[in-house]
Amino acid sequence: MPYKVTSSGKTLTLDRAFSLNGVSFPSNWLRVIGNNPDELSKHGISWVEPPKQNFKNKKWWNNVVTPDGKVTSTPKPIEGLREDLTAKAKRYAYALLSPSDYMIIRSVEEEERMIDSDWDDYRDAVRVECRRLCEEYKQADFEAIQLIKPSWPESPTEKAERLKREALEDE
């Protein structure tokens, strides 16, 4: 977008052939001559510094670049954001719970084999966090929904690995 015809303000696109005042220019002309301001000004072409494009976070905003290079951002519809974030929280909770599902099945099938209380607490904490997120998403307006941060619990396995790493670091 940086090259413009000085008289008309028409934007010239790189790597595209164009005609100006009855003269045809090949598609690579601006690349070849672009560093020669005398040649550009001879044909009435000038370099225009492109406007700074400030894109907002695409998670929350729809960003559109207008032909003159400016960015227009509109908020995404709140209902769509709520649905997407709620579905994401549920999928994440499912992904956290599924590796330990076998423990629950085994404890039901084999009555003498109870699930460890650490895992039981972890699974409860995952469900509580999922419910919290879903409820907060449901109640939040556009500004508030952007501030909601998940706080997923650490599994007993992850906790044991972290403690082992910390013990090794302390040595």
Layout: helices, strands, pairs:
Blueprint: E1 3-5, E2 11-12, E3 18-20, E4 23-25, H1 29-33, H2 37-42, E5 45-47, E6 61-65, E7 71-75, H3 78-97, H4 101-109, H5 117-139, H6 142-145, H7 156-170
Antiparallel strand pairs: 1-2, 1-5, 3-4, 6-7
Helix pairs in contact: 3-5
Main β sheet profile: 3 strands, antiparallel
The run of helices and strands is EEEEHHEEEHHHHH
What's the number of extended β-strand segments? Answer: 7
Q: How does the helix and strand content classify structurally?
A: alpha+beta
Oligomer: single chain
Count the DSSP helices. 7
General shape:
elongated
Helix content: 40-55%
Q: Report the β-strand fraction as a percent range.
A: 5-15%
| Rounded Rg | 29 Å
Low-confidence sequence ranges: none
End-to-end Cα distance, whole Å, is 59 Å
Average residue pLDDT? 89
Main β-sheet, spatial strand arrangement: 2-1-5
Q: Which features characterize this protein?
A:
elongated; 7 strands; single chain; 171 residues; alpha+beta; three-stranded antiparallel beta sheet; 48% helix; two-stranded antiparallel sheet
What would you say this structure looks like, in words?
With 171 residues, the chain is of the alpha+beta class. It is 48% helix and 14% strand. The chain has seven helices and seven strands. The protein has helices at 29-33, 37-42, 78-97, 101-109, 117-139, 142-145, 156-170, and strands at 3-5, 11-12, 18-20, 23-25, 45-47, 61-65, 71-75. The chain has a three-stranded antiparallel β-sheet. It has a two-stranded antiparallel sheet with strand order 3-4. The chain has a two-stranded antiparallel ribbon with strand order 6-7. Strand 3 and strand 4 form a beta hairpin. Helix 3 runs antiparallel to helix 5 (117-139). The radius of gyration is 29 Å and the shape is elongated. The protein starts with a strand and ends with a helix.
